[in-house]
């Protein structure tokens, strides 16, 4: 199962960005999804940096296996989960 979060609509609302990121991570854990695709878009790169900082928080980092930046598309980040 793969979940997808497009942040284009909330790029300028910090509290909403964090809420949506937390929501998709929580949903991935609840549904035991293997992959979450987060689309911050290309823009200036600030939104992508914010997403990566969010994912580096200790309590969030403990929930996933690894983060992959898409080498073919700068505006996309993959969060991989490993379930036993």
UniProtKB/TrEMBL annotation:
<dbReference type="InterPro" id="IPR036063">
    <property type="entry name" value="Smr_dom_sf"/>
</dbReference>
<protein>
    <submittedName>
        <fullName>Smr/MutS family protein</fullName>
    </submittedName>
</protein>
<dbReference type="InterPro" id="IPR002625">
    <property type="entry name" value="Smr_dom"/>
</dbReference>
<dbReference type="Pfam" id="PF01713">
    <property type="entry name" value="Smr"/>
</dbReference>
<feature type="domain" description="Smr">
    <location>
        <begin position="5"/>
        <end position="82"/>
    </location>
</feature>
């Amino acid at each position: 199962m793969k979940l997808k979060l497009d942040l284009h609509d909330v790029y300028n609302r910090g509290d909403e960005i964090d809420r949506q990121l937390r929501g998709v991570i929580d949903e991935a854990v609840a549904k035991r999804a293997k992959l979450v695709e987060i689309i911050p878009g290309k823009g200036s790169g600030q939104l992508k940096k914010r997403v990566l900082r969010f994912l580096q928080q200790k309590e969030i980092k403990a929930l996933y296996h690894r983060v992959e930046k898409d080498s073919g598309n700068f505006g996309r980040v993959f969060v991989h989960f490993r379930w036993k």
